[in-house]
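Archive entry. Fields below.
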Amino acid sequence: MSFASFNFPLFSIILALVCSAVSSVLRRKAARILSLCLCLTVAVLSFTLCSVCVRMGGRMDFLMGHYPHPWGNELRFGPLEPFFAGMFSLIMLLSILGGEQQLLRDLPMQRQNYYYVMTDLILVSILALCYSNDLFTGYVFIEICTISSCGILMIREIDRTTLASVRYMIFSLIGSGLFLLGLILLYGITGHLLMPNLLDSVRSVWASGGYRLPLLSSAALITIGLGVKSGLFPFHYWMPDTYGAATASSSAILSGLVSKGYIFFLIKIVHRVFGVEMFYASGIANILFVLGLAGMVVGSVYAMREENIFRMIAFSSAAQIGYIYMGIGISPQLGITACMFHMLAHAVTKPMLFLSAAQLQSCTGKRTVKELRGSARKHPLAGAVFIVGSLSMIGFPATMGFVCKYYFAVAAFAASAGRMIPALIILALSTCLNAVYFGRSIISVLTPGTDADLRRVRVRDNVPFAVSGIMLSALNLLWGLNPKFLYNLIDLGRELL
Amino acid sequence: MKRSLKELFREWDADRFDLSVSGSVPQKERPSPLPPERYDVIPELEETIMRRFHRVVPVLTFLLGLTLSLFLIMTVLELPAFGSSDSPVFNEVFTRYVQDGTEETGAVNTVAGVILDYRAFDTLGETHVLYTALVAVLILLLGFEKTDPGIRTPGYEVIRQDPVLTTCAKLVIPCVVIYGLYIICNGHLGPGGGFCGGTVIGSALILAALAFGFDSVERFVNYRTIRVVLVIALCFYSLSKGYSFFCGANGIESGIRPGTPGRIFSAGLILPLNAAVGVVVSCTMYSLYSVFRRGRL
Amino acid sequence: MMERIWDERIQIVAVILFTIGFCTLLVHKNLLKKIIGLNIMDTASYLLLTSMGYVEGRLAPIIRGGNTDPSAYVNPLPAGLVLTGIVVSVSVTALLLALTIRLYRHYHSLDLDKIYELAAKEDQNER
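PREDICTED_STRUCTURE:
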């Protein structure tokens, strides 16, 4: 069994590719069922593989073809990669499920199957980014991810989505251009593209002191490229437009999964290409640390000023991406573990917020925080999911958000004073700001509205949303109350990365 | 109304270039796709903070460009010297690709061996990039002839049944198709392969659509056939390559042999994969042209 | 120093082109010119990549007459990577052009600033 399970990454990728191709000739319903089944299958396969890897306690190189590195493509997985792949596909399943009502409303009827083609392709690219052991394969799948994210964004045919997609594409393409240039420079000084050989070459080049500038600039270009694509602070301008204009499922997938896929790939690059020592000695980590801190504050300040609830959640995403980069910058062990925990927490929480906000919005028909007054009373389930999500974003105890803030604080205390003090201050400040704007929206949805029309939305009116909302909240509370298992898994996985 | 090249260039430079079909159709005959009041909406640009910021943009851009290019030039000067054979790029990877590539993959053209055997996963992704882009363009533009009256106007799809054009097309198209097939089939033997061959065949389809009109091309290449053919080609690609990956990773004999290098039926999977890629590329190229031109397939 | 610059002229031109394309993509307000900038940027990257595998006097990596001596051929790997890159850049260009057509049909302008202003006006009208 354990031997066979090593083929699961290959099976999931090929299965997802075939599903994406077949979905283009299916009808809407069939494509939807195929896509949901695909996500479920991939999640099951990935979690099985994860348990096998944990029991084995090691990692595995899987040849894509007949040739080992440095000649042929490879996949590599320890416990962490299948776990993230499984979580990503599970969250994608729940996001597609929870936004069905909005999908039916927002999408042109005759082309809805293309939506599922695009989600399947996003799943493929995220899987490939999780598993790939090759830098150039990463580039190719980053591009697939970019185009298909743009696809699920612009399929909602209002003109704001087209405009938002243009902005999203421009930033993404700048990111991929920088990434590609960094990759080429790295290839020029090492002659390799497979990560294990890159790591060896980079170590020897760094130790010998030659090619210092190309090495540094390639590391900087790759990091900035992926940072731009995932919405690092000065490049976060595409986020509010994008997440605010797309249909709920797309916003959930884009904010919950796509940006996390890029960041996961970046963390892999830090560990497997440049090596932790070189990356932290070169000062790039410091830049990430500062930009992350800035993003935490600026994103929250913008979110406070925003009236539209979707744009508010989107700006809070910019702040959360700041947390993640702050975690990468703070220290290579505790910091990165905390940052990965936060990636999971954010990937679970953001879809909750987007999906439930869309439900609340469809109750009242309004998008601003003020006008959502009393909507939680009309739609209690969506209100509950929204409140759990908001509390998790604030960092209320018993939610995942609290646990990751705790781990960030632990990481900050272990770091040098120069990093500890700013990190702690900004962490506290950002938490307060989060509490202000999420608290405001919680109060707004709970206050009794002036509407006399008090027809309650029952759970049975929208079963898919109920399933996805309850599952996501349960995951959030489960790992909020009992984070030890998850933390140990991430720590083990990080050691083996 | 024909506009001279100079005029076109001037419009282009002043950002007034018209995207619509220029020259062949008089502008007045086409009803504007927008209500006229929208043109009035375009305001004289207001003196906002953004505006003032935009005035310094050229200076900032110049500075940014200067810094970036100086930085990159310094970087490039530190790279291994151009054209030297002892740079790190010529390492054991290169040696094996050239020395053993023909024997291991059966392809005389090492580039084909590299992209379709050694690094086949990249190319699998690459083919799907094209497919993704095609689906995205279809999402954006398909069915637009219904909402945009400009496209439905007579004369938009200009079909000049010009005898010179049709006669030349009849002569040229078969040659182009045969040349494309030759490139695809010789991908493992010489310069070529699925991507360039597919583009050549796609250009033959586009030429046919230009000369004889879309209707005559549609008899054999239409929305339905393109979708079916694409799905078959992509599934064949993914499944056959998946089988080969599976066998390679688990050390199972796959039954795919490199054959005698230099023969047309050699190099294992490379020839069928090139054919699948060629199908995908040619369908994509023609579909993109058709969708851009008239909003449907 | 000048000699070194002259020897590296191809790679220097490549990075200058990259910068030009990058700046055009980043700050030019005309959408079509942004797309042209994107293509310049990508092509410059491919030029840089190709130049790394090139050695004066060597042949294209197509094995002739059973001569598998590595010192006779240039590096096939950059060629393969460039091929992949070209396909990626074609796809992205097609998507951006389609987006441009959609925006032009609605706003009748290619100027991104104007489009943003129009969109903001539309938002105000909706409220």
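CURATOR_NOTE: Confidence is low (pLDDT under 50) at residues 19-45 of chain B.
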